[in-house]
Amino acid sequence: MSTPNETRNTSRGLEFFILACTLLVIGFGSGAASISLSTIFQEFALSYAIIGAVTSGVFLFLILFLALGGRLRALVGDKPLLLASTSTFVVGEALAGLAPDFSVWAIARLLQGSATGCLLSVSLAFVADSARRQWRGDVISVLLALYFLGTAFGPGVAGYITAFYGWRDIAYVSAALGVIVLILQAAFVTAPRRPDIETIFD
Question: Measured between alpha carbons, how far is 120 from 125 in angstroms, rounded to an integer?
Answer without folding.
Answer: 9
